[in-house]
Amino acid sequence: MKTLSYFNHITLPESRPHNRVQAWRRVVAPCIIHAQRSASHLSRAQPASFIPPQVSEIVEPAAQAMATNMRRVPVTISTIPGSPEVATAFVGPTRDEASRYPKDAPSIVLLHGFDSSCMEWRRLYPLLAAAAPTYALDLVGWGFTDSSLFQSDPSLVIRPEDKAAHMRAFLEAHTDGRPVVLVGASLGGAKALDFAHTYPEVGWLWRGET
Q1: Using CA atoms, how far apart are residues 61 and 183, in angstroms rounded to an integer?
Q2: CA dihedral 2, 31, 95, 136 (to 10 degrees)
Q3: Does some domain include residue 171?
């Protein structure tokens, strides 16, 4: 595990359990408001067509922002026969938007837990996105990433190496050569470790668990 000096300026005060609500109101909530104003790519108008209509029932602003800004891009999985492209869901900047961040800022990739999606990162995402290009990614087989290929062909099994290849292809297409910080919760933490072991040349690792 490596200390990331780039983020040393982002600090939150320690708080005892009975002070957590006060700390949230005093420190974290204003940070989220500032971050949402600062991250220019958190401003798209309507959720994409692949988002279920039930999302309109969500009332939490952070979740609404994630749903509204989620999009899909084709990602090739070279380890699966035929190297299929999978429409991969994520929230993050375009390459043009990412180029506006400081040159020394690493790319942060947020990996969700078991039976979850990138929506899991709805509160942390805007804080990180205000400082560095940040991508909340739906792993292949989970979340809003298209799974129709695997539903139509039950013989296709998503192996650990397929998940790693999927992540690698996504990073190559979007992080523009920046060092990569992987932040994983639960299953995402395991995939971060596996990816760092498989592709040690990509960058830093930061593993977290819920």
Answers
A1: 23
A2: 70
A3: yes
CA distance 118 to 145: 10
Range of the domain at 53: 13-207
Asked if residue 18 is part of any domain, the answer here is: yes
Residues 6 or more apart in contact with residue 84 via CB below 8 angstroms: 76, 77, 149
CATH of the domain at 83: 3.40.50
pLDDT at 37: 43
- Least confident residue range of 23-27, 77-81, 124-128: 23-27
Place of tokens 């296709």: 156
In degrees and rounded to multiples of 5, residue 38 shows phi and psi of -80, -35
Is it the case that residue 32 has pLDDT exceeding 70? no
Q: Look at residue 131 in the predicted model and tell me its pLDDT.
A: 94
Find out whether 30 and 46 touch, Cβ atoms under 8 Å. no
In a domain, 5, yes or no: no
User: Does residue 151 lie in a domain region?
Assistant: yes
Based on its alpha-carbon atoms, the radius of gyration of the chain, rounded to whole angstroms, reads 17
Q: Which residue has the higher pLDDT, 76 or 155?
A: 76
Mean predicted lDDT score pLDDT of the chain = 82
For the whole model, what pTM was predicted?
0.78
